[in-house]
Amino acid sequence: QVQPVESGGGLVQTGGSLRLSCAASGNIFSIPVMGWYRQAPGKQRELVARITSGGSTYYVDSVKGRFTISRDNAKNTVSLQMNSLKPEDTAVYYCNFWFFDRTEFWGQGTQVTVSS
Q1: Measured at the alpha carbon of residue 15, what is the angle toward residues 20 and 107, in degrees to the nearest 5?
Q2: Rounded CA gap, 115 and 99, in Å?
Q3: pLDDT at 1
Q4: φ and ψ of 114, to 5 deg
Q5: Which stretches does DSSP call E strand in the chain?
Q6: Which of 19, 54, 66, 114 is deepest in the core (most CB within 10 A)?
Q7: What is the rounded distance in angstroms from the CA atom of residue 80 to the CA atom of residue 52?
Q8: Are 8 and 21 in contact (CB under 8 A)?
Q9: What is the mean pLDDT of residues 48-60?
Q10: Are the C-beta atoms of 25 and 112 separated by less than 8 Å?
Q11: Strands 110-115 and 10-13: what pairing?
Q12: pLDDT at 65 over 80
């Protein structure tokens, strides 16, 4: 069993920055895809960014140029650097680990609130 454990998040003003981090608890050799999702009140959960073990990245259009996802394969950690934050970025952010057998694991979520 692999459990993503998130840290970071909090309250920030518009234009500010936050960094989210996620580490894998449990003994795991490699995680093919690590990602961050978010869910705002009344909205569906959406993929924000993901990164493969080879370093390929994907970003949803709304965060391109503002957010950067990175990972440390040796430590099985993934981070999301969020700059130029906007009120519409307010959501609960979830770390996700995806494996080739389509098994996936979710973190407990961390709140990000951007005040206007």
Answers
A1: 20
A2: 36
A3: 77
A4: -115, 115
A5: 3-7, 10-13, 18-25, 33-39, 46-52, 57-59, 67-72, 77-82, 91-98, 104-106, 110-115
A6: 114
A7: 14
A8: yes
A9: 97
A10: no
A11: parallel
A12: yes
